[in-house]
Amino acid sequence: MCHVIVTCRSMLWTLLSIVVAFAELIAFMSADWLVGRAKPSGPEETDKGSVGPQEPYRPTLGIYGRCTRISHMQFSRRDTLCGPYAENFGEIASGFWQATAIFLAMGIMILCTVAFVSVFTMCVQSIMKKSIFNVCGLLQGIAGLFLILGLILYPAGWGCQKAISYCGPYASAYKLGDCSLGWAFYTAIGGTVLTFICAVFSAQAEIATSSDKVQEEIEEGKNLICLL
Questions:
Q1: What is the model's pLDDT at position 19?
Q2: Beta bridge partners of 50
Q3: pLDDT tens-place string over residues 63-89
Q4: Would 176 be classed as within a structural domain?
Q5: Is residue 40 a part of any domain in this protein?
Q6: Structural domain count, the chain
Q7: Do residues 59 and 71 touch, judged by C-beta distance below 8 A?
Q8: Rounded to an integer, what distance in angstroms lies between the CA atom of residue 183 and that of residue 174?
Q9: Are the C-beta atoms of 117 and 136 separated by less than 8 Å?
Q10: Is residue 145 assigned to a domain?
Q11: Quick check: is 120 in a domain?
């Protein structure tokens, strides 16, 4: 018989697992890992003609994507084009960034799998007599290691030609040059920290769903068990 067990700790772990997976996925897909040097814009074009120069803009560069502003576009003010600069894996700007993409992708795949499974932990608490929370926590720890490896290798690629074109000639491995770090990099770091928090917290979720109070309510014949 299936027992639906909901506790504060198990629900918090499930929500955190989903948030972490989405945060890492969004960061990986974003082009806002590096914010390049400020570049001057041409005059702003409107229906009434030129109204003076626009404010300088700063293009952004991601692991495989970039955002830049299209100049001399008539009848538009701020035309920013975002998309992948690499059409395939081999065109990613640096070997270090290729390795980063592999490690991050592996970590994110594991996190997304755990996030999907975590939704069903209300009904299924064990797999082959092993706690599903402990298994998911172990997977989250492994995913966190993959994410750390990716984030460590990423700055090693700052010396590639693509990064130099955005950050200036002084950019090199682990040196930003004229660039600054974008929100996607910080989001990936924050998601990695939360990944390990989730891995540790999974043990608390397992304790909450196998507590004496839960067992008492199961013995009383209840199928829906909600505990604070």
A1: 95
A2: 45
A3: 999 988 765 544 445 567 888 888 889
A4: yes
A5: no
A6: 1
A7: no
A8: 18
A9: yes
A10: yes
A11: yes
Question: What Cα–Cα distance (Å) separates residue 224 from each residue in 4, 115, 121, 123, 151?
Answer: 5, 22, 13, 9, 42
Mind listing the pLDDT tens digit for each residue in 49-58?
A: 555 455 667 8
Residue where the block lists tokens 């640096």: 94
Residues 6+ apart with CB under 8 A from 149: 99, 103
- Report residue 202 as tokens: 């999974």
Are residues 61 and 33 in contact, defined by beta-carbon separation less than 8 angstroms? yes
User: What is the residue type of 195?
Assistant: T
Token pair, residue 78, equals 């701020």
The two three-digit tokens of residue 191, written as one number: 């998601």
The H or E element spanning position 207 is: helix 183-209
Please tell me the pTM assigned to this model: 0.83
Amino acid (one-letter) located at 216: E
110 has a pLDDT exceeding 50: yes
Q: Which domain holds residue 159?
A: 4-35+94-226
- Identify the CATH number of the domain in which residue 115 sits: 1.20.140.150
